[in-house]
Write a structure and sequence with these properties.
Blueprint (H helix, E strand, L loop, with lengths): L1 H8 L7 H8 L2 H24 L1 H24 L5 H19 L9 H26 L4 H15 L1 H6 L8 H28 L2 H7 L2 H13 L6 H18 L15 H8 L25
């Protein structure tokens, strides 16, 4: 559902479906789609095997660390000391927050392994999305490519599971909300942040997800946190504020592909790009790729 929503947004945001097809013909585009599907599948397997608490802790807690390592190896993004400290504080808060939740699920090696695979898949498609944004692709195009292909790969899984809950208005409404609001809107904003922030910083800031989920549970579902969970919530918020205040982690905007006009001016020689004093400047060439 989220992939379809992202694909439907393409013409509304000045992008083209052909740009997504071009991504699918690249190795990075294919691997990003596979990672997206693997994350969804492995995360729910982990939750089913180990329970929500452990599955969430292992997947979301190790995701930023793996993203930082992959970004260093594949993109050359060296993490800052502030990121290391903020991420450590966030993960510590997540441990306390999850530790404050009672779970009847037994420990499962298979479940923990699935959670680690899910974390690696999340880090993988985050780093690959950053690479595609650097190449000049629009945020909506990058996310539509990853989630469109990932959704297509998960269709056999959907058909193998009971779908009776989709027949009712409540079930369909829930599916539309999860697909169009949480996935489509959320990941367009995710990609916009990824276009200007380091990969590791974005992955750490995504730890706001369990914090918001816990706050909604308290406000909407009248859930209660013990002392450990409340302390974890405060520590997690502190780590997120530390990461948000780390202005040194900001990077330059993503590179744009040069236009034909700019390429022609460059090839004409060193004097072609000079402006005489008093000469009027023409309009700058527009980027090839549509963006926000």
């Amino acid at each position: 559902m989220g992939g379809l929503g992202l694909l439907a947004l393409l013409p509304l945001m000045g992008a083209r479906f052909g740009d997504v097809l071009a991504l699918w013909r690249t190795r990075a585009g294919l691997v990003a789609g596979v990672c997206t599907a693997a994350y969804q599948l492995c995360f729910f397997v982990a939750v089913g095997q180990t329970g929500v608490a452990v599955g969430t802790l292992v997947t979301i807690g190790t995701g930023p660390v793996l993203a930082g390592v992959l970004a260093l190896v594949l993109l050359g993004e060296r993490p800052t000391r502030a990121w290391l400290v903020a991420t450590g504080v966030c993960v510590s808060g997540l441990v306390l927050l999850v530790g404050g939740v009672e779970s009847s699920a037994a420990f499962s090696v298979t479940g923990v392994a699935a959670a680690l695979v899910a974390a690696a898949a999340y880090a993988g498609y985050t780093v690959l999305a950053k690479q595609q944004l650097r190449e000049g692709h629009a945020p909506v195009t990058v996310m539509a490519g990853a989630f469109g292909l990932g959704g297509a790969l998960l269709v056999p899984v959907l058909l193998a599971l009971p779908t009776d809950w989709l027949a009712g208005a409540r079930g369909m409404g829930l599916a539309l909300y999860l697909g169009l609001v949480t996935t489509t809107t959320g990941y367009v904003l995710f990609a916009r942040g990824l276009a200007t922030l380091p990969t590791a910083s974005v992955a750490t800031l995504m730890l706001a997800e369990p914090l918001v989920a816990t706050a909604l549970g308290i406000a909407v579902l009248d859930e209660h946190l013990g002392f450990t969970g409340a302390a974890g919530l405060v520590v997690l918020l502190l780590g997120l504020l530390m990461q948000g205040a780390d202005t040194r982690s900001l990077t330059l905007p993503r590179r744009r592909r040069p236009s034909v006009a700019l390429a022609s001016a460059t090839s004409a020689g060193p004097r072609a790009g000079r402006c005489r004093p008093g000469a009027a400047r023409g309009p700058l060439p527009s980027p090839r790729r549509a963006g926000w």
